[in-house]
Amino acid sequence: MVKKIFENTNILLVVTILLIVVLSLLGPEEKDLGRNVKLVYLHGAWVLAAELAFMLAGVVAVGALIAPYTGLLSKAADLHAWSQALGITGLIYWISYLPLSMLAMQSNWNGLFLAEPRFRLALTFAVVGLLLQAGLWIMNHSVLAALGNIAYIVFLRVLFANAANVMHPPPSPIFNSGNYVLIFYFVTLILLTFFSAILVASISYRKIAAR
Fold first, then answer.
1. Which residue in 12, 42, 44 sits closest to 24, CA to CA?
2. Residue 6 reports pLDDT greater than 90
3. Average of pLDDT values for 48-70?
4. Distance CA 192, CA 23 (A)
5. What are the boundaries of each domain within the chain?
6. How far is CA 134 from CA 62, 139, 177, in A?
7. DSSP code of 170?
8. Which of 45, 58, 103, 114 could bridge across to 153 with cysteines, CB 3.0–4.6 Å?
9. Each residue of 65-76: b (16+ CB within 10 Å) or e?
10. Is the confidence at residue 154, as pLDDT, over 90?
11. Residues 70, 73, 74, 77: is their CA dihedral positive or negative?
12. Is residue 61 within 8 Å of residue 150, measured between CB atoms?
């Protein structure tokens, strides 16, 4: 049974999502936000998984572009397909993070602060990313897709690095809390969520490679 789960990406993805849900429900409470802080943990892990997927898409895209000049021409097509799959996966997690963010706002602060700079920027990148990936899919041009994935993560990181912090105070309250149980829990949640993103990317990769 266990072997069958690990051999089937779709089943493994469902199991991983269920584990993420269970782990989120078992998350430690916070003295001010109480149980609702668990939504904050989940939305944080979810958006970090999206960013990691975007970053990996950019790194793989660079590898795909230089592959023909390093004697790895035979690997270029696979690298391009993986870059596209990771870019699409990052977008899926990025878009789905937005309702999680809104739910966390409503549950913890009794309202939706949609004018919050980082949320507004996240919404903008969701729209831009959707248009970008749709356009790249239609054009079906691997080099343009690679350049698009590189540009997207570069602009995303630069703009977010300079965005005002209102409801996202730096540095990370979790990683600077000194609570190693909480830190271990959050890192585990991030890794599990990122693992689910890799599974989604592998499913996307097979569809892209088959085009």
1. 42
2. no
3. 93
4. 9
5. 2-209
6. 21, 9, 41
7. S
8. 58
9. bebeeeeeeeeb
10. yes
11. positive
12. yes
